[in-house]
Amino acid sequence: MRDDDRAAGPGPRDEPDDTYLPIAEHGLIGDLRTAALVGTDGRVDWFCAPRFDSPSVFGSLLDAERGGCWSIEPVCQVATHNQFYFPDTNILITRMLTADGIVEVQDFMPIRRERDPDHRQRLVRRVVNVRGRMRLAVRVAPRMDYGRASHRVERTPDGVRFTAAALTLSLRASVPLETDAGDARAEFDLPERASALFVLEAADDPISCATGMVDAVVAEELFEATVAFWRRWLRQSTYTGRWREMVHRSALTLKLLTHEPSGAIVAAPTLGLPELVGGARNWDYRYVWIRDAAFSLYALLRLGFTQEAQAFMDWLTERLRTAGDGHAGPLRVMYSIDGAERLPEETLEHLEGYRGSYPVRTGNDAGLQRQLDIYGELIDSVYLFNKYGPGISHASWMDLCAILDWLMEHWDTPDESIWETRAGQQHHTYSRLMCWVAVERMIRMARQRGLPGDLGRWTTVRDRIYHQIMARGWDPRARAFVQRLSTGADSPPPDILDASLLLMPMVKFVSPADPRFLSTVEAITGRLVADSLVFRYDPKESPDGLLGTEGTFSICSFWLVEAFARTGDVEQARLALEKMFTYANHVGLYAEQIGMTGEHLGNFPQAFTHLALISSAINLDRAMG
């Protein structure tokens, strides 16, 4: 029967601000459809269902009072929290040590096999008393639709059901549950070596939510099947280098950020986590950036995960097939998981943001920008897939030729480029670099496979871009390639360094031994680097139209490692990589940025960072022999 309705909207605060865990104090679990963040204190404080980009069910990461969470904790004081992944899996173990004993929470989302037609979305939490006699308190407090929608709570024979207009959650438990103000609660004793089980299942309607008693035998079977799934997947990796643990954790994280039904790869599973605590640079990253996904494809191919590469190519083929000719270009900068092009930005006015970091935005207006660099990153990934995979189809080649025809006419125009600035379009050197990559890789593919193409025209344009970068993207005063092109032959370019230009030798534009690149690395190291941490650019020198400051970009730090390795400074590269490893969180995950005191900033974990870690480790291994 109905116990209570929970209405959305502000209410009295029942938790202090210090209940926000540091961003880094989280691990990630998922089922290749969505993901959840679990804090070191045993709280699930971020979970969207049924997809990565669905509204949140638990969102206390963005509002301690109104966001909702699922907590499991001893009633007594906890002395120490520990968290780790069950070896070679994405099953997360959180241990809480007290004077009365030790309790362990095993969190996972069951996956039995690849593309399982019978997959059910479940979040399983198994609580095990390792030592002593423990009394535990559980609170399941969903807040549907980012805390905006009301829900109804009903008792069921084995638990409770939370029902809202668009989503139903069925909670089954091995201990009695009580309902209170729209939440479910339990307090119970757990003898030594005993366990308690909680299973939360998400469905579109109440009928689809399974019923039945919680069975410890079934739970163990789900655990073992999920362990087997992750280990079977990881065995495909061809990486045997020096940093196997970090590389494989990054690969497992990239897999978690893959939406299996579509093949899409999201940039991060979160929204609104700030680039500066209390600041306004808070974005929604739960979408597919063409750039990020293209780099992810490269990383997965390098590790031997060809099935994921094929799945993403299938997703990408659909985007190529439907490419138009909008004001920003035939392709969008980002898409939703299922390929939607419009992702309007909206502010969730009722949420205070992580530690007061307001506004909290869903959607992302950067999708409307012109970012010419995406064509180079996209075509480079297709080139690698064509080289190391089964090869692209005739239809895909013709689609790419049509896109290149558009780029031929528009490469010499201003854009917002890789960093998605909001200060107006500029002539970015990095965008020219990636336009060169797009044309050059199309020429390579045509020659390697004898594919049709206007090679004479393509070669002419490729060389024009090259000479423009060398003439107008090089600043003889700074002795470096700089962020923006000069306006003409007689005017020097603005003296603004940009860490994205560390990629120049990686995309084969210049030799890593070229004096111009060597001096660019030296200039970036002197002005944008602090103890191996790299700022993407200096907002004071290059205003980006946004208020506040930001941390160092972890992907740029890994690019610096690779630049050192390619220029032959192997010792410096190894030292920088080892330093970067110290900035990972306790389970090997990275947010988008690192602050100057080592705190993680921005959305978490970020695919871009983990793919750069993989690339830098592989290339440094090669350089070291």
Describe this structure in words.
There is one protein chain. With 625 residues, this protein is of the alpha+beta class. The protein is 31% helix and 21% strand. The strands form nine sheets. It has a nine-stranded antiparallel β-sheet with strand order 1-12-13-14-17-10-9-8-7, with helices on one face. The protein has a four-stranded antiparallel β-sheet with strand order 2-3-4-5. Strand 12 (151-156) and strand 13 (159-163) form a beta hairpin. Helix 3 packs antiparallel against helix 13 and helix 7 runs antiparallel to helix 8 (429-449). The longest helix has 21 residues, at 429-449. The relative contact order is 0.10.
- Average per-residue pLDDT, rounded, comes to 91
The largest pleated sheet is described as:
9 strands, antiparallel
Total number of strands: 30
Tally of helical runs: 13
Shape: globular
Strand content: 15-25%
Strand order of the largest sheet: 1-12-13-14-17-10-9-8-7
State the helicity in percent bands. 25-40%
Low-pLDDT runs: 1-16
Q: What is the CA-CA span between the terminal residues?
A: 68 Å
Rg value: 25 Å
**Structural class, from secondary structure content?**
alpha+beta
